[in-house]
Amino acid sequence: MKKEIIVHTHTQSYPITIGKLTTLNFQEKKVLLVTSKNIATLYLHYVLPLIEAQSVHTCIIDDSETHKNMQTIEEILAAAFQHKLHRNALMVALGGGVVTDMVGFASGIFQRGIDFISIPTTLLGMVDASVGGKCGVNNAYGKNLIGLFHQPKQVFIDTMFLRTLPERELHAGVAEIIKIFACFDYVLLQDFSMRDLEIHITQSIHLKAYIVGQDEQERRGLRALLNYGHTFGHAIELEGGFHEFLHGEAVSMGIVMANRLSVKLGILSPDVEEFLCALLQRIGLPTHYKIKNIDSFYNSFFYDKKSLDSKLHFVLLESRESIKATIHNDIDKALIYEVLHEFT
Known about the structure:
This protein is 40% helix and 21% strand. The radius of gyration is 20 Å and the shape is globular. It is of the alpha/beta class.
């Protein structure tokens, strides 16, 4: 049975449909479907016949983090111009978080913005990238530093796509579910099980839909809490050249590093720290990163989108009254370095 979750933002509302993918009726629209080489091989023959439109064109891109850049955006835009897309056309993102981010970005700047829909094929794409309209690419300075907010018109979640997802990528997506539960509904982690993954996907999407509806562009601080583990995680990705670890793996290690800082600040119980580390390990996620260069690792924090006012802002978990995420700034540099030295 299909489920539908509506995301209500100040700019628009759109449905997230969870269930088996069926006919997609786009009437008289021109459609540019963007996907990766691997997903094209696995699923293009399945998805293309479901699309009813004036015409359907495809654009095949590389979807690794190292290709999440302006050059790939130019490839998508070139395909849109070559196939004579217009303001009433539609882009379709078929793929994981990287494809989703880039199609959202490309559609947001093509002719000052056209519609796009998302059909995520990875767990990370389903619970994170496809919900909320954050679209961006990487550059030499860091992760997702170039981008915009551009909400999709619709999202289709079909867990059938997860059947061919490599185990490592599946686990990486679970890191994002653990992140959002830890920040906004910690009790959901008490009985967390991979056997209940489809239930956890729906729970996670419900939470994120609510957060996006309350704070679409991170202006009230609520949505910024979703960056728990990400300040450290993005530094890990940057130091590894965006190819050493999957995003969710970096977030997992980032959560552990953030929790270490919280414990040193006296705002998080060591029991909670140990529970989360054990849970991440039980899922099969990495929990210890060896920093290559502490100074450059620390300096990369200043390129984080929450820290562009020249002050470091960390999203940290606390357990003083209840377990929740909060934003902290002006943390003593010596204490941050003390934490970093534990990961060398």
